[in-house]
Write a structure and sequence with these properties.
alpha/beta; TIM Barrel; 7-stranded parallel sheet; about 45% helix; about 10% strand
Length: about 325
């Protein structure tokens, strides 16, 4: 038998090797975990607010058909959802998720909860619509009501025969309270549908939504080990770019991205006559469309060697990936 000192030495070596392997795994981007090579920049160019209006639908479809957009998500309580549902029946391969909607922000153009006022009274404002802003929701709506509305929106999509490649959150409401996010994650895990969750270097996510990114980080191993993919980063700042600068700013951003999977959000629209009445961001949304269909942006993607992907591909790759070990999480 080895002396006790030798046994102790061997145990210490084994523990050190395990610690090194955990640290090395923690340094992996989620792109690497999903099978891409080290150093690769993988991007989802995503369009929010589909189904909100005819203009939103026209912009989203043009961004995918003629531009570089790879994904979109649909606001199920909104009036133009049936239009996009019909489009998806003819184009079932589009990467189409649900932009889970708990607010109704515009003054003259509004919508209510799909679960119905009697089922989710805390989500309804004095006009009978969803609250205009996130603080309104947080002040009145319980997590149970939020979950009921999530499930109602999922049910509506299923009824319409729409593909659901992922779930995210309109105006970030589901990231505003830990119990809201828990409901969001619970439904995604139960249904086996990817949810928007940032677990990698989170360079832009920490700049734009630092508190939520930190507070929800403990969920990352749970979501990953439930079989759902995780993003390395999320960029939401394009909404604040000046319309005339959007194409140039997107080109610059593409050259600055760190390795990993990053989703970049846009609200591309093709304004119809009524669209400026709905929203004061009409020209900003038109500029998103111009950026996503710009030949210069397409050339920048190619010159930087950026890999474009979809939520559907992330889920396919996640099925082949390894689970995260105990205590293993990518560094923020």
């Amino acid at each position: 038998m080895f002396p006790v000192t030798r046994l102790l030495q061997n145990a210490l070596v084994a523990a050190s090797l395990l610690a090194i392997s955990v640290l090395q795994a923690a340094d992996l981007t989620f792109a690497e975990r999903l099978g891409w090579k080290a150093g690769q920049v993988v991007v989802i160019l995503h369009v929010d607010d589909v189904g909100m209006s005819r203009s939103s639908n026209l912009g989203a479809t043009e961004s995918v058909e003629k531009g570089v957009a790879t994904s979109w998500s649909v606001m199920m309580p909104c009036p133009w959802v049936s239009d996009i549902a019909h489009y998806l029946k003819e184009h079932p391969d589009v990467d189409s998720g649900l932009h889970l909607t708990l607010t109704s922000e515009w003054r003259p153009y509004r919508w209510g909860p799909l679960a119905g006022k009697s089922q989710v009274p805390g989500l309804v404002d004095p006009e009978g619509c969803l609250w205009r802003d996130v603080p309104g929701v947080m002040a009145k709506a319980s997590a149970a009501e939020v979950e009921a509305e999530i499930r109602a929106q999922l049910d509506r999509a299923v009824t319409l025969g729409m593909p659901i490649t992922h779930l995210d959150s309109h105006m970030g409401t589901l990231f505003a309270r830990a119990d809201y996010f828990a409901a969001f994650a619970r439904v995604g895990i139960e249904k086996g549908i990817p949810i928007l969750a940032i677990g990698g270097h989170a360079t832009y996510a920490r700049q734009e939504n630092g508190e939520a990114t930190r507070e929800l980080r403990a969920w990352i191993p749970k979501i990953w080990n439930a079989g759902l993919p995780i993003l390395d980063d999320l960029h939401t700042g394009s909404y604040d770019w000046k319309p005339e600068e959007k194409t140039a700013k997107l080109i610059a951003l593409l050259g600055e991205l760190k390795p990993g999977v990053t989703e970049i959000l846009f609200h591309a629209s093709r304004p119809t006559e009524d669209f400026p009445v709905i929203t004061g961001s009409s020209e900003s949304r038109r500029a998103d469309l111009m950026a996503l269909t710009s030949p210069e942006v397409r050339a920048a993607i190619q010159s930087h060697g950026i890999v474009l992907t979809t939520w559907k591909e992330l889920m396919t790759r996640r099925k082949l990936a390894l689970p995260m070990g105990e205590g293993e999480i990518a560094k923020p």
